[in-house]
Amino acid sequence: MARALYIHIPFCNAICYYCDFARVINNADTVDQYLAVLKNDLDSRDLSHIETIYIGGGTPSALTLNQLEVLFTMIKPYTKNVIEYTIEINPESLTSEKAELMSAYGINRASLGMQVSQAHLLKVINRSHTNEEVEAAVNALHAAGINNISLDLMYGIPTQTLEDVKESLDVITSFKINHVSIYGLTIEPDSVFGKLGYKPAPDDLDADMYELAIDYLNSKGIKRYEIANFAISGKESLHNQVYWSYDDFVGVGLHASGKENNQRYTNTRNLKDYLAGDISPQVIKLSKEDQMFEFIMMNLRMKKGFDIKRFNQRFDEDFNSLYADVLSGLIRDGLLNLEDDNLSASDNGLNLLFYILEKFMR
């Protein structure tokens, strides 16, 4: 049964130049129509075992106070067993009233899209908040009782330097937060950057920025627990760990994805179709081989790795026999660690995970 629920809110007050998610400019009438269809979408799913909820976008916090209450009200029946309830927020769109409403409906975690601290780089990616607005948003969340807060950092932005990354890390860690997600910019064809022909940062610079972030955050007690995610001990994202543990999750909303019953699906990206009630999910049936590889791929993203017995029980296979040659080579090279049937990537292995996964492809 699915343990996690993702809800997509595609509306934004402005379109970030790097984004290729399903997103549209905010319009009050369209939001109201969308929420009505979203309720039907939610009510049609089996959400009886949901433990985590994540409202993403788009910009969920761009909705009005009344629209947010409509959204939270429709979700409320499914929150009985929820441990972690997260919402994505753009700093400039959060008010103290919205923070208090979120808290009143049980939201206990927030993910703030900061990305960078420099005004000139925010302009490059078409974001408009200030560092003062980020700090105000963090303070508003704490005042409302939402103390589990993550900030996003992006690296590899055109013209961004190592010193810019260091400065952004200085600013981020000056706030009262306990989780950081870092993202290397990828130029997607459907993004504004892609359509304008922008190129990604050179591989060496990209790697240096990533290593700088790892070392800096570690020095502040914010430890890497997954390739791109760092947290103070005990504040690791429970919702994302459902994905990485390769457990089932439900995706609701425009272009939302889910994985249930050995199938992966993605709802329609066409807003007009979705508003007409036509979700039209694209479904991929996962073979046993697909599932075994994806299990390894997702679990090795986490520093803790996975218990081989869990793989054996799930797939009725002997992991050590299936991958004997692969394991011996990667362990010998110091990229994987095997201890008491727990397999995990070393620090260097996490940096070279794509190389490791190529070895597991059958």
What characteristics describe this protein?
9-stranded mixed beta sheet; TIM Barrel; single chain; 362 residues; 2 domains; 16 helices; 3-stranded antiparallel beta sheet; alpha/beta; 17 strands
Give a description of the structure:
- The protein has 362 residues and is an alpha/beta fold.
- It has helices at 28-43, 65-75, 96-104, 119-124, 131-143, 162-172, 192-196, 203-219, 238-244, 271-275, 288-299, 308-315, 319-322, 324-332, 347-351, 353-360; strands spanning 4-9, 11-12, 24-25, 52-57, 84-89, 109-115, 148-155, 179-184, 223-226, 229-231, 249-252, 257-260, 263-266, 282-285, 306-307, 336-339, 342-345.
- It has two domains: 4-243, Aldolase class I (TIM Barrel), CATH 3.20.20.70; 306-362, no CATH class.
- It has 16 helices and 17 strands.
- Strand 4, helix 2 and strand 5 (84-89) form a beta-alpha-beta unit.
- Helix 1 (28-43) packs parallel to helix 2, helix 3 (96-104) packs parallel to helix 5 and helix 6 runs parallel beside helix 8 (203-219).
- The longest helix has 17 residues, at 203-219.
- The two termini are 28 Å apart.
